[in-house]
Amino acid sequence: MRWSSGDRSNIEDARGRSGIGMGGGVPIGIGGFLVLLVLSWATGTDFLSLLGGGGTNSAPTEMTGTTGQVTATPQEERMVDMVDAVAGDTQDTWQQLLGNRYQRTRVVLFRDGIQSGCGAAESATGPFYCPADQKVYLDLSFFNELSERFGAPGDFAQAYVVAHEFGHHVQNLLGTSERVRAGSMGANSGSVALELQADCYAGIWGHAASQAGSVHAGRVQLEPGDAEEALRAASVIGDDHLQKMGGGRVQPERFTHGTSAQRTEWFQRGLQSGDPRQCDTFGALTH
Ligand SMILES: [Zn+2]
Description:
This protein is of the alpha/beta class. It has helices at 33-43, 47-50, 74-98, 141-149, 155-174, 190-209, 226-236, 239-245, 260-273, 281-286, and strands at 11-13, 28-29, 62-63, 70-71, 107-109, 113-116, 119-122, 128-130, 135-138. Helix 3 packs across helix 6 (190-209), helix 5 (155-174) crosses helix 6 and helix 6 (190-209) packs across helix 9. A hairpin with a 2-residue loop joins strand 6 and strand 7. The chain binds zinc ion. Zinc ion binds next to strand 2, helix 5 and helix 6.
């Protein structure tokens, strides 16, 4: 993936801020990580460590409390620039598609835990979108998990995660999220339709980024092999794959995000068409 550093106007840096409190609303995540954590908690087995991989940063980082100052490795700072570039480009894409129906928002970067408009969240929740404050929340350590524990490395795999969360923002702006009952579950649930549509919307951005000459226009540009990275990421966080990773049997009645096959299929649909009308997961699942 080719991209250039910007002014970080798409980022709200809360990495040096800590604090947990209460809030309202339900966060919508990328799926997966919390599932494994809950399995670990319920059975007393640490599935996360069973999955292998160290998952720690290459160098120690240091926080200076609530002053907002943060110490980070150059690699982490480059990751911040990448997230900013992807977030900016994703938002440009949706602005072009939706006009003034699109409202720009930001990615809140945090470490360990954060107080969001949807309540307290820990890094184990994984990246999520909070409809109440309309922001995307991300702990960059998730990218290490994605690469080392889930086996989906690469910058476009990471970009897919960011673009998926912005897909939830689009759903919130268009009123789609309201159609879904919070906490719904099962292979044909509204929750799965919502998540697969966010995958399709991530593909919509991928389509825009795959246009030749994007990088010369100051935009993100995909390179050969990038699409495969994102497809791999979509596949490893499918509900069926995660349930197997967690050592259990596949339970479609507990699906919240869709199977690996569905997640890759809907991402690809967006990627190939670039047309949000092709992302009618609600129609596809309920008819
Ligand atoms: Zn999601």
